[in-house]
Amino acid sequence: MNFTLRALQQLGAEEHVIRNRAALAPVSGEQACRKLSGTLQKLRQKLTVVKLDRPKLSAERVWSAFAASEYDLGALDGLQFRTLCSDEKTALRPQFITALTRNRDKLKRSRCLYGMVNAYFSDWRDMDDPATVEQLLRSVFASASDKNPVVQKWRECKPLFSEHSVTFLADEICAGQKAVDDTLEDYYVGPLTKLGRSVRDSAARAACEHFRRTERSRDSEWGVRYLQWMTERLLSDLTRKDAFYYAISSLILSDSAKRSEAFQRALRSYVQSHKMLGDPRVRESSVNWRSMAPEAAQHYLSWLARDSIIFFFNTILPNTNENRRRKDFWLRYHDRIRDFQVAVSEADLWKVRASQKNSELLYYSQVAHPTTSAFLMRFEGYGAQYIVAEFSEKGNAAYIFKATDFESKHVTMRTPRFDLRKHLKFDDTHRILHLGDWERKASHKLSSEFGIRP
Predict the structure, then answer these.
(1) How many whole angstroms separate alpha carbon 200 and alpha carbon 116?
(2) How many helices (H) and strands (E) does the chain have?
(3) H or E element, residue 381
(4) pLDDT tens-digit profile of 306-345?
(5) What is the pLDDT of residues 381-406, one digit of tens each?
(6) How many CB atoms lie within 10 A of CB 224?
(7) What is the H or E stretch that residue 385 is in?
(8) What gap in Å lies between CA 305 and CA 339, rounded to an integer?
(9) DSSP state letters, 260-285
(10) How far apart are CA 230 and CA 422, in angstroms?
């Protein structure tokens, strides 16, 4: 017990440390981990599925001697020959391939053959005359011993050594909803080789196409399982950015995301916590969303807007008929919201903090007012963007003003603290009064004067 107490006491930072740390700029996780990420990448590059026993000779020096002998394989001893086979820069050079085509028996030693195949996977179809390389490898497999399970696997899978290898492996992954890494390992393809990366990207795109064709005939549970497979076993940090953002955009725009709350909730959980995505409203994450399809980014923001409208009117405001009417009215427009922000008063701050444990809301501003909170919405309208500010307390109209006028007050949607009069009620020219049959009048006003429609 005493040991635990002493340990806890030592966790307390000194006052000057806390004060100095608060003045520093926020730490960028990506920047801080850049060196570690580089080390991880180098380790991955050394990873091969089959064990390569690389000789310590200089491949270029051996190549110079090979060239001096007019590319005679007989001039190389066993160690020199294995050096050329195991080095990705020399293994697929045309002169070496030509010499091997005349003397295939040289590749009967598995360590040499593994080096050649790994070089082929690493530089997949980027070498001179890939068809000749593929024909050489297939002929070596055909004459090799049946005792080697690796060579036997390659011999049985002729499409693996052809222009169709990416499609072949991607289709196998999607058809069985397999993990990409498991399938690559089954065929002894290194995950960081060009072939491995190409298969990963192709599988991501193929999975989206299959999902789009199939989802309408399946129930929501199937959709959630498919999403789980894609996010847990298909997509990874090795997926190229264009394929990754294509896949996520496709999932956001899918029919399943529109009709299944469980699917949308699972997808949002993945997106919000992913280092390549995150909440699009947050400055650090907003850069990631530039690579997404614009329509998908807008759809995703509308999901957050819808939930924030519900949160504002259900949690911040009293549950009255008038407030329910306001909530239902703005929910009709959630697909048109380009940005939004909840700004809470001193009296309502505890409600937000209490709900944060069970809500995604989590990004909010404050209003410098004891009791009045606000919900800000940005819309695209006639020739400009407009801000609509709804307020929590009864008797407040909704204010409408140009976004440029709003920003001229030196505030943005992410300003931490708003002044009620100076920032949110500075112009009462255009307002929505919540009196009588106000919904019909408000719809007409938004449509005819500002070009804002559901």
Answers:
(1) 22
(2) 23, 7
(3) strand 374-381
(4) 999 999 998 888 888 999 999 999 999 999 999 999 999 9
(5) 999 999 999 999 888 999 999 999 99
(6) 18
(7) strand 384-391
(8) 8
(9) -HHHHHHHHHHHHH-TTS--TTSHHH
(10) 48
